[in-house]
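USER: I would love a firmer grasp of how sequence relates to backbone shape in proteins. This is the protein in question:
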Amino acid sequence: MPLTILLNGSKGRMGLAIAGAAPAMGIILGASTDQGDDLRPAMKAVDAVVDFSSPRATRELLDLAVAAGKPLVIGTTGHSPEERAALLKVAARVPCVWAGNFSVGVNLLYALTRRAARALGEGYDTEVIEMHHRMKKDAPSGTAARLLEIILEERKLGASALRHGREGLTGERKASEIGVHSLRGGDVVGDHTVIFAGAGERLELTHRASDRAVFATGALRAALWVVSQKPGVYDMQDVLGLA
């Protein structure tokens, strides 16, 4: 039987890309909802929910999906760390793939960043740079936030080590400092670079997306995978077998 999904956030850039990619993957768009729509009737006749909407809508969506026992794929970003922690507890009651980026290439970037951070250690200063289209509402991007989490985990550092941009007399760079820089302009789909700068050499890991279709097909791939999983929160590393 083909998979039938509810697409929440259907009028956004990602929603439109997912709707366009679904037929080629044998997935049926059972319902499409956006801001202000009632999710309850839409959720009844679908196998799973795919959400790329607003962070303000995530809690209601999770509560309804849990009540209906529907697996979830969530690509919405922009939650505070405290909000995300609370939401993850609710999401774990059903099978849920929650990722800031569904591109296969980006998820390989995550894996390579972890290996590089582990191998290079504090002897290499680390900076993360991301660029997106001028309409993006949150910064840093969800992908950059995940890259930073990975680096902090490997370096055993807390969020206080992050340095968002620099201005004026900042003083010398601390060895434990992780720089974060968000650029916005034009119609850039998504560029992410992790820089490891040491004495005499520099390693740069870069991923550039030129078409939202790579995120759409990844999200739909996650939907096909999550419907056969046990309750819990997963990410694309699990979907791709990279975890």
Remarks:
- The CA atoms of residues 92 and 232 lie 4 Å apart.
- The chain has a mean pLDDT of 94.
- Residues 104-209 form a domain with the Dihydrodipicolinate Reductase; domain 2 fold (CATH 3.30.360.10).
- The longest strand covers residues 190-198.
